[in-house]
Amino acid sequence: MKREGFEKYLDQVKNWQIIDDVELLREFRFDNFKSVMEFVNKVAEVAEKEGHHPNIYIHDWNKVRFTLTTHAIGGLSINDFVMASRIDSITNS
């Protein structure tokens, strides 16, 4: 999907960055490592249900970074925006 195809979804993932028009990226910060792991596990459950899995990078004991892309097409698809929105909803629950 080219930028003109996904621009309409950008309002739904305002806290995510678009990297080279082929990847979504967002980093979260928590108070402690346990909270990071609890969050990652919740995201993992949603990813399994959706059948769409983010790359997950845990670093600096209290941060987690997610990237989303659809490898089969070498870029962004609607599934990436849906998954980003689902990850965001976990942080609000």
Report on the structure:
39% of the residues lie in helices and 23% in strands. It has 93 residues and is an alpha+beta fold. The protein has a four-stranded antiparallel β-sheet with strand order 1-2-4-3, with helices on one face. Strand 3 (55-59) and strand 4 (63-68) form a beta hairpin. Helix 2 (33-50) packs antiparallel against helix 3 (78-91). It is globular and about 40 Å long.
Short description:
With 93 residues, this protein is α+β, with helices and mostly antiparallel strands. It has helices at 3-6, 33-50, 78-91, and strands spanning 17-19, 23-29, 55-59, 63-68.
**Given the structure, what is the number of helices?**
3
Structural class of the secondary elements?
A: alpha+beta
Tell me how many strands there are.
4
Q: Please name the fourth-level CATH homologous superfamily.
A: Transcriptional coactivator/pterin dehydratase
Q: In which range does the helix fraction lie?
A: 25-40%
Strand content: 15-25%
Mean pLDDT over the full residue set: 93
Order of helices and strands: HEEHEEH
Uncertain segments = none
Radius of gyration: 13 Å
Q: Termini distance? A: 30 Å
Q: Identify the overall geometry.
A: globular
